[in-house]
Every structure is written in C-alpha cells, then in structure tokens.
Amino acid sequence: MLALHAVQPNPQVIATDRHVMQGWIDFAKRPAWDAASATLSGVSKVIGGDPLRVIIAPNGNDQAPQATGGKLARAADGKLWVLTLEAKTNAEIPWSVRFR
User: Fold this and answer.
1) Residue 86 needs a FRET pair 20 to 30 A away by CA distance; which of 33, 45, 67, 68 works?
2) In terms of CATH architecture, what is 12-98?
3) pTM, whole model, 2 decimals?
4) What's the alpha-carbon Rg for the chain, to the nearest Å?
5) How far apart are CA 66 and CA 98, in angstroms?
C-alpha cells in the first residue's frame, strides 16, 4: 500500500496502521494543526485491546515533541514519529502532539 500526501509546512499525520485506508476511518475528529500552540491534535477511534499507531511527519519540526493521550516514539527510520494509542475497551481517544 502506498499513500501520497502533499507536504505541509507543519507536522502532519500521514497514516495509521489499522486499515488499508491508512487513517481515513480511524479518526472521530480529523487531525488539525494549531500554529499558535505548535500542536497537532485529533480524536482517534481505538478498538479495545488493539493499539492504534498514528504516523506523524514532523516536516522540519525536529525538536522532540510532547504528546498527550498516547505514547510517542521515533519510527525506525529516525525521521517520523509514531503515536501509539491504547484502550481496554472501544473508545474515542483525544490526543495531541506539541512541537516546541
């Protein structure tokens, strides 16, 4: 599967790991960038007991971001960020990633 995205001048979600739609059906609230707070945020639909990984391209914002709602780690390629969201039961989880 291949996804193409126009590069934005700010961090952006490029995929999730749950479905071949790569995130299209995984969001209860589409991810949005707030320039004033340098924060990318959204609300994801999480299946209980099945972690959802949101893949984020920092697009030049290379300082270590801080996340709420999930665990943030560098992807294996060292360029992207992976936000892992988990819940015991099906839930809609609000999350945010603040870039300094």
Assistant:
1) 33
2) Sandwich (2.60)
3) 0.88
4) 13
5) 5
